[in-house]
Amino acid sequence: LAKREGRNTMRLFSLRMQQQVQETLAIARDLRWAVERRQLVLHYQPQVDALTHRLVGVEALVRWQHPQWGLVSPARFIPIAEDTGLIQEIGTWVLHEALRQNGAWQAAGLPIVPMAVNLSVAQFRHPLLHGTLAEALRHSGQPAHMLELELTESVAMEDSDFTVTTIAGLKQLGVSLSIDDFGTGYSSLSYLKRFKVDKLKIDQSFVRGLNRDPQDEAIVDTVISLARSLGLRTIAEGVETSDQLQFLQQHGCDEIQGYLFSRPVPADAFPELLRSLSGIDRVTTMAPHPVSC
Ligand code: C2E
Ligand code: MG
Ligand code: MG
Ligand code: MG
Predict the structure, then answer these.
(1) Which tens digit of pLDDT belongs to each residue from 158-187?
(2) Contact residues for 90 (Cβ-Cβ < 8 A; gap 6+)
(3) 8 C-alpha to center of ligand 2: Å?
(4) Which of 40, 77, 80, 118 to mutate to test the pocket of ligand 1 (most atoms within 8 A of CB)?
(5) For the chain, how many helices (H) and strands (E)?
(6) What would the pLDDT profile of 248-284 be if each residue is shown by its tens digit?
(7) What ipTM does the predicted assembly reach?
(8) What residues does the EAL domain cover (predicted)?
(9) CB of 203 closer than 6 A to ligand 1?
(10) For residue 157, what is the enclosing H or E element?
């Protein structure tokens, strides 16, 4: 019996793997047309000041509106886009669209804040990145400081002349740089000194453990102190509860992003979201005593 069960489990397992492989192939096949067929959409998530809760930035997050599968998560298709090289076309579209949208909101009288865009390693390594960015900025009419690029540690950590030159080029353009999912990559921190990054995004896996896991608390506290002593700003991502917010406020985190304030929303829902955000009074969740230092 055990043997038969084992065999059944194996069969189920390989069936699931087979389905996954087929799904991946189908995604790769259809993704090729996604930009051209205007199936990609950006959703926008507000970033707020930790103490005042005023809007300080927006992150653009891509989704794929597939005619049969519905809204596909970037976690599902971005890795495939990276493997197939489609990330260049998709990434360029994201840049243009995010900058265009930010310009449209500014024209409509919304608060003027930088737009954060995620950059894949493959985009970072592309020899034409600088030109692509310059062109996207020029086309949108947005000043460079209105664009914030989110790089993962795996990009920045690679200690090569190429990385140094590329980052210097981006800084020269005038865009600002954040390290996304900070703390989940390598352990060497020396790159923070060599590359002029502006902000660390504390990964949501650590934020989840606040008020529950002393180790996560220690990590978050350390990252905030590190950032402060290097003159960098911090933003916590994945903030879902007022307890997490309170911990972050008390430990001097600068900015907050997470479902507590809002999920990423479609562009047309953003102005209304801002109105409701400014109406929300979260003063009761503020630190009971002022943050020192
Ligand atoms: P990320 O850049 O670290 O983005 C944060 C992710 O956490 C987003 O997932 C966001 O929707 C989600 N999130 C925000 N607040 C909360 C919260 O309070 N709780 C929880 N549980 N989740 C929260 P999303 O939109 O599914 O994106 C996943 C990842 O896909 C992103 O992680 C980013 O690495 C990648 N991605 C998204 N858009 C782009 C893009 O335009 N280009 C590239 N290269 N990558 C992208
Ligand atoms: Mg990001
Ligand atoms: Mg992140
Ligand atoms: Mg992440």
Answers:
(1) 778 888 889 999 999 999 999 999 988 766
(2) 31, 34, 35, 40, 62, 78, 81
(3) 41
(4) 118
(5) 12, 10
(6) 999 999 999 999 999 999 999 999 999 888 765 444 4
(7) 0.98
(8) 24-278
(9) no
(10) helix 153-157
